[in-house]
Design goal:
single chain, alpha/beta, D-Maltodextrin-Binding Protein, domain 2, 7-stranded mixed beta sheet, 5-stranded mixed beta sheet, 16 helices
């Protein structure tokens, strides 16, 4: 079952199960279980293979309601309101904000290290060749997203503020529409919106490498509402397991996987294939290593990324306060990953 808030609806099975053979997690079924409510984004990633193929529904035997959101901040609000049990692809900055504010959010897995996949795109005809050229321009991004976090970091690192650059809060589809009308000069956004801007007179203004080097690292995560994870741990484990299998499918059959992702995102297979290559997708096993989430009793470095992100959000007055490093370490729950790999 799919609900759409801002983008396209469900994708029917474009790839036969004979191509992608999935093991089924051992999930104990009660007579009746409530639906699993997942907040997601339409993106050119293997996450959309899970939805397109109905893999979680097959693995659990439960109804899965998919609701599309425009940013991780919207997923945070849905989790608090009880409308979302899982945020599938929530960015690290909204997750850091959620943990800082004491929201009932557990980080249970990672999707990717975003790297160059989210980037500033500028209108080629606007002749923006340096960060200083952004003065007086209009740049759109979804507020509360990882792209917003990076854009604010870019301005800070170059001595600019939002008095110098008009930063507009728009979701991906609205960014594409505003671009086509000529209302904005640039946007910090992810694919497929980014790809559409590039195809419509845009060019990449490279920022990600310098921002990563000074601590503005961004990643996409998998989060669960704490109460849901406690009540339905097998469903959380099943999601991680089928996502890992979808990721393996992409790695072993990239062309076929790109076709599925392309249809879900509304782009060509060539565009989807190019977009997929920009992400550093992290395997389930690698997520348990010290560079990422770590293992039980040995928190990984990703908690430090969340902590740094939260401190920056406080500085930008996006949130009131950040907790100590231990707050972010305690919000990371790797038990589901371990079970998915067992």
């Amino acid at each position: 079952m799919t609900h759409t808030i801002s983008r396209r609806g469900a994708l029917g099975g474009a790839l036969g199960l004979g191509t992608l053979v999935l093991g089924r997690p051992h999930v104990a079924r009660a007579a009746v279980k409530p639906p699993i409510n997942i907040g997601y984004f339409v993106e050119t990633k293997p996450t959309n293979i899970v939805k397109a193929q109905g893999l979680l529904e097959k693995a659990t035997g439960q109804t899965v309601t998919w609701t599309e959101y425009g940013s991780g901040a919207e997923i945070n609000a849905a989790i608090v309101a009880g409308g979302a049990d899982i945020g599938f692809g929530s960015g690290s900055s909204p997750v850091a904000a959620a943990i800082s504010q004491g929201l009932p959010v557990w980080l249970v897995g990672l999707v990717d290290n975003i790297g160059p996949a989210e980037e500033l795109t500028v209108r080629s005809s606007a002749h923006i060749h340096s960060v200083a050229d952004l003065k007086g321009r209009k740049v759109a991004t979804p507020f509360g997203s990882t792209s917003h976090f990076r854009l604010l970091g870019l301005l800070k690192q170059n001595g600019l503020t939002q008095k110098d650059v008009t930063v507009i809060d728009l979701r991906g589809d609205a960014i594409v529409a505003a671009w086509s009308r000529g209302d904005i000069d640039g946007a910090y956004i992810w694919a497929p919106a980014k790809s559409k801007l590039l195809a419509d007179g845009g060019s990449v203004f490279k920022t990600w490498d310098k921002l990563d080097a000074v601590g503005y690292v961004i990643a996409d995560t998998i989060v669960a509402r704490a109460g849901f994870a406690e009540q339905q741990p097998l469903a959380v484990t099943a999601l991680l397991k089928v996502y890992g299998q979808a990721l393996d499918f992409y790695r072993t059959q990239p062309d076929e996987a790109a076709k599925v992702v392309a249809k879900a995102a509304g782009v060509s297979p060539d565009v989807a294939a190019a977009d997929l290559k920009e992400y550093d997708f992290i395997s389930l096993a690698d997520q348990l290593k010290p560079d990422w989430l770590g293992s039980q009793g040995k928190p990984g470095k990703f908690a430090e990324v969340l902590h740094h992100t939260a401190e920056f959000l406080v500085e930008q007055k996006s949130i009131k306060s950040a907790g100590p490093l231990a707050t972010y370490q305690k919000a990371i729950h790797t038990e589901f990953l371990r079970q998915a790999l067992a």
